[in-house]
Design a protein that fits this description.
Two copies of one chain form a homodimer.
Chain A lengths: L19 E5 H15 L5 E2 L9 H9 L5 E3 L2 H9 L4 E7 L3 H11 L3 E6 L2 H13 L4 E6 L13 H12 L3 E7 L11 H24 L6 E4 L5 H5 L6 E2 L29 E9 L5 E4 L14 E2 L6 E5 L4 E4 L12 E5 L3 H5 L4 E6 L2 E7 L8
Parallel strand pairs in A: 1-16, 2-9, 3-4, 4-5, 5-6, 6-7, 7-8, 8-9
Antiparallel strand pairs in A: 1-10, 10-11, 10-15, 11-14, 12-15, 13-14, 16-17
Amino acid sequence: MTTRPPADIGMALEEVDTPALLIDLDAFERNLQHLAAAVAGSSVRLRPHAKTHKCAVIARRQMALGAVGACCQKVGEAEAMVYGGVSNVLVSNQVVGAAKLKRLAALAQQAQIYVCADDAGNVGDLNEVAAAYKIELPVLVEIDVGANRCGVQPGESALSLAQHIDQAPCLRFAGLQAYQGRAQHLRSFEERRQAIGQAVEQVQHTTNLMSQHGLECELVTGAGSGTYSFEAASHVYNELQAGSYIFMDVDYGKNLAADGTPWREFEHSLFVYATVMSRPNNEWAVVDAGLKALSVDSGLPQVADVPQAEYASASDEHGKVLLHDPDTPVRIGDKLRLIPGHCDPTVNLYDWYVGLRNNRVEALWPIVARGAGH
Amino acid sequence: MTTRPPADIGMALEEVDTPALLIDLDAFERNLQHLAAAVAGSSVRLRPHAKTHKCAVIARRQMALGAVGACCQKVGEAEAMVYGGVSNVLVSNQVVGAAKLKRLAALAQQAQIYVCADDAGNVGDLNEVAAAYKIELPVLVEIDVGANRCGVQPGESALSLAQHIDQAPCLRFAGLQAYQGRAQHLRSFEERRQAIGQAVEQVQHTTNLMSQHGLECELVTGAGSGTYSFEAASHVYNELQAGSYIFMDVDYGKNLAADGTPWREFEHSLFVYATVMSRPNNEWAVVDAGLKALSVDSGLPQVADVPQAEYASASDEHGKVLLHDPDTPVRIGDKLRLIPGHCDPTVNLYDWYVGLRNNRVEALWPIVARGAGH
C-alpha cells in the first residue's frame, strides 16, 4: 500500500507526475529559519507540531534549528516520529483506550514522551499503564482557553486534576496544555491579540493557583502559527506548538497583519502539482487534483502561477478551473501549482514530499505518519 | 508507510482501535446482491466503480456476482486492481502525460484496459504510446451529458473524435463514456429521471449519428448509484458504473424515492469508528475522528447509534459531538459508529477495511489503491 514517489531525484519540475505534493525548499527553509530566529535568545522554546508535516525528516530539521522536540496528536504519529529519530515528543492530546495506552507506555520506554489529560478517570488509566510498564509518565493538564473543544476549565478544575496527577504514583505533573485553536484564523491582528490575551490571563491564573499549592509547571505549552508572537511575549507560555508556519495555506493567507495588510510573515512553500487533463471549451479547464488530492474543508485551493485562473469546484478526482478569459494560457498537459486551502489534511493524503530547488527535484521525503490516525 | 490494521480477526467490535473504517458485511453483501439482481437477465452489464472502494477484494466480489470488470479513475488505481486480480478495467477518465501513458500501455499488455478521451491531441498521444508498446488500445469518447466537467459535446463533436480514434492505427474506437455526475444527488426522483432522460437523448442522438457513419459502440457506459435504474432501462446504455451503492453515505441518504420518502434502496454499510476522548461538560463530547478520518466536503457525518448526538464540527483530529441532552449516554472511552458524509474520499484516508459480522471482525481487507492518485 505504499505508493511510488511521483518523481525522481534530479528531475525537472515539469517532469514530476501529478498529483504530487511539492515543497519549495528555499521558501520552506526561510520559514523554518524565521520562526527559529524569532524565539532565539528568549526563554521560549519551539516544539513545532508534527501533525502538519507528519515527516520525521522535517521534525529533525526543526530540531537542528533549535526546536526542543515535536508535538503529535496521535500515538501513531508519535511512534513514527520517535522511530524517525525524534527523541522528545509531546502528545498534545488525550490518549484513551487500552490498546493506545499500552503503545504510549511502550514508546515512553524508548523516548521522552509527554501526554495530556482532561479527566480523572483517564489519569487513573494512565497511571495504571505506567505502573505496568514501570515508567514515570509526565502528564500535562489540558485547559480550555477558548477553543471550546477538549480540556478542563482553568483555575480550580485544573488544579484539582493536577493534584490528581501529582498523587498518582507512576505519573509526574508536567504542566499545562493551553492551545487556543480558534484564535489562529481570526482575521484581524487585534482579534487574535485579544483572544490570546484572554488565554494568557487564564493560564496565569491557573499557574499561580497551582504554585500556591506547590505544583510547578515544567511546560506551559500552546500557540499556533497565527498567534505565536503573542504567546511568545506572554512570559507565561514557555513552549510554542506552531506547525503550519512551515508551509502556510490559503486559509492562513487570509489573516491580516497589525497594519491591516495581508499577513505575510511566512511564505507559501507547499503546493499540489496538477495536470490539465481536459479543456472542453474556452470557459474552463479540468485538472487531475480533486477531493482525494487536496482538502477543501477550509476553502478551495488557489492556482499559484496563473492569477486569472480560478479553481472553482472539486469532485473526487477532478478540479474545475474557470479561465475567465479565453486567452488564459492553460492547455491540456500543462502542469499547475495549487496552493492548498488547508495544509494539514492535504498533507495527510500523500506518502511523499517532492522537494524542489531551482526547479529541480532535490529531495523525496517520506510522510511516515500519513494515515497514522490511531 | 503502511499503517497497521486497527483490529485483529476474531476481535469483538468494541475492541477495534479507532479511528477505523468498518464494513457491516451483511448490509454490504445485501447491497452487492441487490444491484446484481436488478440487472440480472437484462442486456445491461455492471462495471462498478472502484474509485469508491479502492480494494481488489471488493472488485472481485462484485465480479463474482456478475460484474464484467471495474471502472477506475486513475492509472494507479487500475494498476492496483489488475495486480489484485481484476482482469478487465475501464479507466473512465482522460490519461494525460508521458509517464502515465507509458504505464497505461504497459498495463494494457497485462489485462483488458479501456480508456477515455475528449481531445484529438490526446488521441494522438494514446496512439503513439500504443504503437510503442505494440498494442491495440480501445478508446471511448467521453461526452458531456450535463455534468459540465470533461467530455466533448454530444453529436458532431463526438463523431469527429470517434473518427479520429477509428483512423488511428493502434487504437480501436470502443464506444461512449456518458456519465451524468450532477444527476446523482438531485434530491427528487423526478429531477433525476429528467436529467438522465436528457442524457439518454444525447447519447441516442450520438450513437445514431455514429452508426450512420459506420461506427458502432461496443460500450455505452455511465450511471451512478443515484440514477442507475434510469440508465439501465434506457436501452441505450449497456454498462453501469455505480460505485457508492455498496456503502452509501449521508449525502446519498438525502435522496428521495419516487413517492417522496427517503430513498432506502441500499443500506449504510460503511462506518467510521471513533472513540469518545473527552467529555468536558454536559453539552458536548469530543471524538478522535476529524478531518483526517472522514471527508466533510459533502457534509458532516451522522452518529449511527445515538440518535440525539450530533457530530457538529470537525477539526484536524477531533470531532465535536453535541449531546443536546445531559442524559445522552456518551462517556469517555465509548466507541461510536459514524456514517460518513461522503464515502469515496473518506475511504481514501484508510489503508484497511475492518469487516464485521455479528459484531466480530471477520475480514481485514487492504485498500490497495488508497492514495493511488497518479
